[in-house]
Amino acid sequence: MLPALTASRRRLPLRRVALGAASALLALGALGAEMSGAVAPSPPPSLAESLAPSTWAMTLPTAWLAAPVPRVGTGDLIDVLAVRQGERAYAVPVAYAARVVTADERGLVLELDEEGASAIAIARGGGLLLVPLLRSTR
Questions:
Q1: Is residue 86 within 8 Å of residue 138, measured between CB atoms?
Q2: Residue 101 forms beta bridges with which residues?
Q3: Is the whole model's pTM more than 0.70, yes or no?
């Protein structure tokens, strides 16, 4: 018999077997990671979505304030007074129970109803300064 006509068992090189096993493990790992249900974190809600119904967010810059802002945190309630300084000084409440959305060195962002927002805008238009008063939780 001629050697070319005989079928011999050829062994696969060890390197090919190792590469095939490694690629199978990587494919299984990729499928497992995809099927593990890892959900991408949802984006935080926008400011408009976090407001209560029929309310508005309004920024009170520090320049509008006649007194420093008390140490407030998100969710605290404040009342706002409008004050006129000078010989005929007076103070008038303009907003009640405004919820603090954010506070920093530039000012406050408050959640206000229609009356509070318009009263603050009118007071500022009249040249009055604002005084934020932190409400007690008790």
A1: no
A2: none
A3: no
131 with 67: CB under 8 angstroms? yes
At which residue do the structure tokens 């090919």 appear? Answer: 16
Partners of 57 in the beta sheet?
Answer: 111
CA-based nearest residue to 74, from 94, 98, 47, 103: 103
Q: Which of 55, 54, 57, 60 is nearest to 123 (CA)?
A: 60
pLDDT digits (tens, 9 = 90+) for 60-114: 999 999 888 888 999 999 999 999 988 888 899 999 999 999 998 899 999 999 9
Query: Closest Cα partner for 129 from 85, 68, 78?
Result: 85
DSSP the chain: --GGGS--PPPPPHHHHHHHHHHHHHHHHHHHHHHTT-PPPPPPPPHHHHSPTT-EEEEEEGGGBSSPPPS--TT-EEEEEEEE-STT-EEEEEEEEEEEEEEETTEEEEEE-HHHHHHHHHHHHTT-EEEEEEPP--
Rounded CA separation 51/55 (Å) = 6
